[in-house]
């Protein structure tokens, strides 16, 4: 996919209000990092009050996944999760607009040698991640150290799409954005020894999915990870990221490649992936994207787990 280019169309009056908002956001993110975290937490409190539908989805997910917690404990976790989501708004802007040197100070990266070894051996890599609220800034920090290609879905707003791609790709000067449905293009990159960020932890419907336990619940789990690894002759390296509690930045870990993957069956692979996803989420549940309806697709005959959207 070609690099994003500025178009004179972006100066059309229909975008003026958006430019104004983006300008104010740019000014805000020049503030010290600890202050931005506090502003993000405040935004999270506001979102908790106003985003009723998303709050209900997140609360339901926590109820399903952590039945051992009391109602009060789950409410506290839900509030922390919305605070983390509010912070993610500013983390997005930080990753797009902070000078690279300033941004780099936030990174505490472990396991980079696994990526470098695969690169030295000409081996493609599926960087298997999960949808944490720190996703945007985590990819930027890792991208400063090693080129990462990514799955991409075009945004409906062309100006936002331009800014999003420009902000992401400035950390990876030779990175490639792969359309989410471009399987052939992804396999080509993997066979060329590239590293591609990929997260298999969301519900993409029954097509190309198997029902596999996640937090004890049968969840539609995509089989693409093992297919990409097999057809692309690629290693699967789990990748986790965590916003540190002392406000010093982020701990990013590139884990060793999964041994004997793909395995004997897609069912075995999906179970193994979900077990890893669950362990990664349990290590930091307040920073996971719980507002996604992870269990919306149900096995035949099983009742729906979420309320109908109003």
UniProtKB/TrEMBL annotation:
<dbReference type="GO" id="GO:0005886">
    <property type="term" value="C:plasma membrane"/>
</dbReference>
<keyword id="KW-1133">Transmembrane helix</keyword>
<dbReference type="InterPro" id="IPR011920">
    <property type="entry name" value="Lipid_A_LpxL_LpxP"/>
</dbReference>
<dbReference type="GO" id="GO:0008913">
    <property type="term" value="F:Kdo2-lipid IVA acyltransferase activity"/>
</dbReference>
<comment type="similarity">
    <text>Belongs to the LpxL/LpxM/LpxP family.</text>
</comment>
<keyword id="KW-0448">Lipopolysaccharide biosynthesis</keyword>
<comment type="pathway">
    <text>Bacterial outer membrane biogenesis; lipopolysaccharide biosynthesis.</text>
</comment>
<dbReference type="GO" id="GO:0036104">
    <property type="term" value="P:Kdo2-lipid A biosynthetic process"/>
</dbReference>
<dbReference type="Pfam" id="PF03279">
    <property type="entry name" value="Lip_A_acyltrans"/>
</dbReference>
<protein>
    <recommendedName>
        <fullName>Lipid A biosynthesis acyltransferase</fullName>
        <ecNumber>2.3.1.241</ecNumber>
    </recommendedName>
</protein>
<comment type="function">
    <text>Catalyzes the transfer of an acyl chain from an acyl-[acyl-carrier-protein] (ACP) to a Kdo(2)-lipid IV(A) to form a Kdo(2)-(acyl)-lipid IV(A).</text>
</comment>
<comment type="pathway">
    <text>Glycolipid biosynthesis; KDO(2)-lipid A biosynthesis; KDO(2)-lipid A from CMP-3-deoxy-D-manno-octulosonate and lipid IV(A): step 3/4.</text>
</comment>
<dbReference type="GO" id="GO:0009245">
    <property type="term" value="P:lipid A biosynthetic process"/>
</dbReference>
<dbReference type="GO" id="GO:0009103">
    <property type="term" value="P:lipopolysaccharide biosynthetic process"/>
</dbReference>
<feature type="transmembrane region" description="Helical">
    <location>
        <begin position="15"/>
        <end position="33"/>
    </location>
</feature>
<keyword id="KW-0472">Membrane</keyword>
<feature type="short sequence motif" description="HXXXXD motif">
    <location>
        <begin position="131"/>
        <end position="136"/>
    </location>
</feature>
<dbReference type="InterPro" id="IPR004960">
    <property type="entry name" value="LipA_acyltrans"/>
</dbReference>
<keyword id="KW-0997">Cell inner membrane</keyword>
<keyword id="KW-1003">Cell membrane</keyword>
<keyword id="KW-0808">Transferase</keyword>
<keyword id="KW-0812">Transmembrane</keyword>
<keyword id="KW-0012">Acyltransferase</keyword>
């Amino acid at each position: 996919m070609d690099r994003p280019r500025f178009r004179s169309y972006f100066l059309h009056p229909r975008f003026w209000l958006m430019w104004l908002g983006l300008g104010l956001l740019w000014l805000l993110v020049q503030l010290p990092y600890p202050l931005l975290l506090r502003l993000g937490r405040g935004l999270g409190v506001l979102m908790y009050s106003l985003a009723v539908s998303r709050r209900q989805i997140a609360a339901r997910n926590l109820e399903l996944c952590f039945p051992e917690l009391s109602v009060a404990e789950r409410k506290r976790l839900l509030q922390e999760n919305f605070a983390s989501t509010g912070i993610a708004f500013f983390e997005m802007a930080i990753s797009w607009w902070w000078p690279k040197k300033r941004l780099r100070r936030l990174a505490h990266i472990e396991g980079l040698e696994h990526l470098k070894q695969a690169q030295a051996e000409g081996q493609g890599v599926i960087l298997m991640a999960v949808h944490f609220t720190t996703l945007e800034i985590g990819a930027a920090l890792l991208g400063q150290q090693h080129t990462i290609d990514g799955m991409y879905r075009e945004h409906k707003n062309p100006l936002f799409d331009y800014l999003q791609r420009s902000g992401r790709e400035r950390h990876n000067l030779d990175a490639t954005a792969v359309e989410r449905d471009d399987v052939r293009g992804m396999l080509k990159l993997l066979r060329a020894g590239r590293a591609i960020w990929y997260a298999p932890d969301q519900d993409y419907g029954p097509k190309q999915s198997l029902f596999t336990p996640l937090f004890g619940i049968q969840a539609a789990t995509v089989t693409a990870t093992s297919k990409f690894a097999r057809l692309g002759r690629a290693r699967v390296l789990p990748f986790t990221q965590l916003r540190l509690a002392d406000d010093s930045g982020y701990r990013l870990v590139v884990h060793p490649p999964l041994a004997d993957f793909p395995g004997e069956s897609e069912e075995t692979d999906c179970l193994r992936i979900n077990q890893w996803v669950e362990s990664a989420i349990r290590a930091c549940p307040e920073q996971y994207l719980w507002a996604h309806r992870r269990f919306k697709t149900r096995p035949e005959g099983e009742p729906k787990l979420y309320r109908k959207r109003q």
